[in-house]
Structures are given as structure tokens and as C-alpha cells.
Amino acid sequence: MVGTVDTYRRVIALTGPLLPLFSFFARLPVAMSQFGTVLLVAETSGSLATAGIVGGTLSAGQVVCGPVLGRIADRRGQRPVVLAAAAVNAVATGALVAGALGGLDTVPLAAIGAVTGASVPLIGPLARTRSVALAHRAEAGEGVVGAVHSLEGTLDEVSFVIGPALVGLAALIAHPAVALGAAAALVAVFATAYALHPTAAVTGGPPGRSLGDGEPAPVRRGRRTRPPGVVYSVRGSLALQGAMFGGCQAGIAALTAELGVPGQAGIVYAAMGVVSAAVGLALGALPARFGLRLRWRVATGAALLLSVPLLFTGSLWSLYAVVTVLGAAYAPHLITAFALTERHVEPAGLAEAMAFAASSLVAGQALALALSGRLAEWYGPSGAFAVAVAAAALSLGLALLTRVPAARTHTVAAFVPAQQKDSPRTPDDAGTRSYAGR
Predict the structure, then answer these.
(1) What is the pLDDT of residues 124-133, one digit of tens each?
(2) CA geometry: angle 280, 322, 250, nearest 5 deg
(3) Are 185 and 277 within one domain?
(4) What is the domain range of residue 164?
(5) Burial 338-370 (b: 16+ CB within 10 A, else e)
């Protein structure tokens, strides 16, 4: 326990305490916008079909444009990309609220939804990229890099628990428009703060800039090579993870409605997220001898084993029990998938690769949600849950069949300034040059 706390203390020493705080509040709008948009449009238009179309275009915009923003961040740096995306996203979210309240037709409202999704600032993928760069620049060990992934995964999980809960609360006591208005404000304030944090200088951008203390920013040289096959398999696995989320969401909603307690759906899903976040944070304590290949296989195997009982769940309390336990398999898979991506993608293209991984997750969830919702109408909750179980089985198959290189397939030297390479550093020194006061 002491060692785990010390590892996370070193991670915070690398980033400073404000960066995780800024990135967490800047992630909340992503978790709020999809659910909030569907609730808002359904209430203002009276049509679930219209709400689904607008929500779908929002997801599509994020899936298509996320990797593009990641590539620009690799080339031009995170700061200008996040500042521009945050500004557009805040305005687009406000326009979406105004359009829905004003009774705008489906097509223009869907177009605004697409712009809203396309301008999501990618805080999760970019925060991973930035924190990993800081760890490598400090020549921190793989244990610290693993703790970075665990912390970022936990922040994602917590945001996706709190975000929908805030939307539901706002809809209950006021109106869904309040939730989306709050999302626009969070993007404007905290994504901007994330962009302006001094650590932004450590990743991407043209050579010759300074990190603010005399050290040069990393220089990107040469053409990027095609990543190994494991990276593409991981993207497929994340898409299947998204399908698990979509199947669980539809199944939980269908079963709670069938039991006459539809208001419990959000609480059940939140319970799964809380357990997932807790296990993800604990993953930072896992010894290095448990390699990423083993973690990937264990996580996907656990997801399959723990999801099968969903097919036989018929009461509220059994649903709580099964879903809560299932949450323990989700964060380890997500954290391992992003860690595999980081290990086998060149630093010069890491933001784009992280964005591709996140987009795969969103795409899988959106497609599975549409499919499992229809299956739930035809076959009941078990039809939706079958989508989650099938996705878990396919994800395990990918993990078992994919060849995972034993070591990194790229050098991390691009992250380390020359004067740091020339000076000796002991393991205890790693990460002591920090942003702890910022």
C-alpha cells in the first residue's frame, strides 16, 4: 500500500497537482454531452427517434474527427488544438441547446450535433500522451508509466460515472438544457486551463520552443513507421469494449423498465463505474512481472466470465450484484489497452494513436447501443446483454490470438532533452524535476 501511494505521489510530482484536476473537470463534458443531448432533444421534440439521430451524429463527429485532432496535436502541439477545440465545442454546445429549445428541425440540429462531437477537445487521450511524455522525459521507470495509465483510466471512469449522474440530476430538478449549459461552461474553463498549463510544452509542436525553464521541447524527426499489428488488435478490442458498454446500458435500461423501476438504471450503471474506477486505481500496485499481454488476456477473460450471468439476471438486486462485479474487469482492460498503445506507437504519433483508441471505444458503444436497443425490444433484456457477452468473447479471442511484442517497439529517447541524457539520474531522482507547484 505504501509503495502504491509513493508511486502515485511520483506521478503527481511529474504533472503537478493542478493538471489532473484540470483534465478531470475538462473530461466531464464528454461524459455529459451524449446523454444530455439525447434527454434534451427527446424532451423538446417529443421524439426519441430525433433524439437518437442527433445523439448519433454527435458520436459520429467525435469518432471521425478525434484522430484528426490527435494528429494535429502531434504536429502542432496540444495547446493550440485544445484552445481551438474548446472554444468551438463550447459555442456548438450552446447552439445545440438554443436550437433544441427553439424547435429547430432535425437536420440542422443533427448538423450542430456533428460539430459538437467533432470539436470534443480529446482531454483523455491528450492527458495520457502528456503525462507519459513527462514520465519518459524524467526517465521514470515502467512502474511509474503504468501508474500514469492507471490514474488516467481512473479519471476517465470517474468522469463517466459522475457526468451522466449530473445530467440526470439536472434533468430531475430543472431541465436537461441546464446540464448541457454546464458542460459548455466546463469545456470553456477547464479545457482552456488544461491547454494553458505549462506542461503543454512537453508534447508535439514544431522544434525550437522552450519548456519554460531553459529546456528545449522534444524534436520530432523522421517519418513515422507503421505500428505493429498489436495496435490494431487493441483498437478492435476497445471497440468491443465499447460494445460491452452499449449492451450493458441497453440491457440495464430494459430490465429496470421491465421491473417498474426505470429510475434505477443510472444508479446501477454508476455502481459498475465506481467499482471499475477503484480496481483501475489499484492496478498501479500490480508488479511489473505481470506483463501487458497477461493483463490483457486476464482482463478480457474476466469480462467474459463475469458477463455471462447477465443473461440469467431477472431481479433488481441480482442485477446490482452482477453488474457491480462485472465492473471490476472493465478498467483493467481499458488501462491495459491504452498502455499497449503507448508502448508500441512512436512518440511522434502518440496523440493520434490515443485518439484512435478512444474513437474506437466510442464507435463500438454507439453501434452496439443501437443494435442492443432493438434486440431488447424483440427479446427482452437478455437480448441486449447477449451483445455484451458476444463482444467479451470476441475481445478475449483477439487477446489470445494477437502476438504482443515482449519489449517496446520504439525508443522513448525523443521525449528526453539532451542535457538530461548527459546527466546521471538514479531511480530515486526520477520525476523529481516536476510541476508540483503548478
Answers:
(1) 999 999 988 8
(2) 90
(3) no
(4) 1-207
(5) bbbbbbbbbbbbbbbbbbbbbbbbbbbbbbbbe
